[in-house]
Amino acid sequence: MSERLNISSGYPFEERYGYSRAVRVGQQVFVSGTTARGPDLDRDAYVQAQRVIGIIAEALEKVGAELRHVVRTVVYVTDMADIDHVARAHGGAFGAVRPASTLVQVASLTPASARVEIEVTAIIHD
C-alpha cells in the first residue's frame, strides 16, 4: 500500500476547512483548488493566474513533482472575459506539457476578489 503525504502551504483556511494544499499517494499528486493571495488579489486575472501556478509549483515541489508532471488542470474563472489572460498564464506554464484541462465559469470564488482558481492532478512518471 502506498504511503499518503499531505502538504500544507500554511494558508490559514486549510486548517479551518480541513484540507491539504496537496496530497501525494504513490506517484499521483492532487493539488487543491488554489487562488492568488494578498496583494495579487488586487491584480488582473493574468497576474492572479501566474501566482496561482507559482503556488501550485511550490506544492508540487514539496512532494517531489514538477509542473511537467501535471496531467490534468481544472480552471475556474468568475468572468469569461478573463479567458485570454488566464490562457496566457496557463499556456506559459503548461504549453509544452499539454495536460487535459477543463475551464468553467463560476459565480464566485474564495476569497471574493479571486478571479481564477486552478486545481491540478500530476503523475510522477520518471
From TrEMBL:
InterPro entries for the chain: RutC-like_sf, YjgF/YER057c/UK114
SUPFAM superfamilies assigned: YjgF-like (SSF55298)
Record-linked Pfam families: Ribonuc_L-PSP (PF01042)
PANTHER family with a match to the protein in the record: BLR7761 PROTEIN, YJGH FAMILY PROTEIN
Record's protein name: RidA family protein
